[in-house]
Amino acid sequence: MDLTAALVDVRSVSGEEAELADLVERSLRLHAPHLEIARSGNTVLARTNFGRAQRVVLAGHLDTVPLNDNWPSRRDGDTLHGCGTVDMKGGDAVFLQIAALSQDPLYDLTFLFYDCEEVEAERNGLTRVERELKEWLIGDLAIVGEPSNGTVEAGCQGTMRVNVRTKGRRAHPARGWMGINAIHGMGEVLRRMEAYEPRIVEIDGCTYREGLQAVKISGGVAGNVVPDEAVVSVNHRFAPDRSPAQAEAHLRELFEGYEVTLVDAAPGALPGLSAPIAQELVKAAGGTPVAKLGWTDVARFAALGMPAVNFGPGDPTLAHMHEERVPVAQIGVCVDVLKRFLLGASLESRQ
Fold this sequence. Notes:
By secondary structure, the chain is an alpha+beta fold. Helix content is 27%, strand content 25%. It contains nine helices and 17 strands. α1 packs across α3 (85-100) and α3 crosses α9. The radius of gyration is 23 Å and the shape is elongated. It starts with a helix and ends in an 8-residue tail after the last helix. 43% of the residues are buried.
């Protein structure tokens, strides 16, 4: 718990991670001198080089969303409150403890403590590492320390945004019959979304429920003009058995007859739980793996051909909330799981 609190108490809103990255680097050099350590901007990289047959990559972002009157940390009984406790400095603390204990691991290990995960992908530290130091991302399994309540959350959904546009013709509202109201024309688009039945897909025993939501709507010219254009922004979360191209084709079919513009998209990640090394993690964690219903950086590793999972302390539904908090015991549970899986040991947790 003390290590998690120390990380939380260093402000690291996206773009402001330098102080925390410096602290993580100093800690690794002091407590894990057996690791090769490198730096890329405000991303700290560390790895073992023991010549093991397989390598596991552990990745945790250092940044948080903006503070919301929930910083610094505070302890309330067996719970630690504060911005980043869940997303994801609890996971970072778990990985730092494993790094310090990794003098004789079962697998070679790579640790990535990276910046700017909570903002656009181009600023994400892993984007820079993939471009400049790609070999640091390669392994046989990736574990991203996103909050998962100490359960293996496998893979992730893909995400996509499209704009659906209706066209009309301007006119004076007093002579509205001379125009075509584009906002009125949006009614059918909204009815199609209201009637939409999302797919439910099971992969490797994990159930992914797709989603389709209107997240923004705009239109109108002035208070005395029949509008000639309206746009609804649609967010689609799709199961990882579909590629972005297939998901886009699905949306274009759904909104046939309307102008559809792709805004952005990111592929999902298959759970990869059939890989023997992933099965070893599941065995160490116990319980039943579940699907990750959001998008996380596991997709980056999956794109490199690696099975990838989310595993960390904290309830993901509390991420980004004012009430963000993590049970102290859950941090210790995650440490114990990774010690069994990575080190073949069951040492007393040091929170």
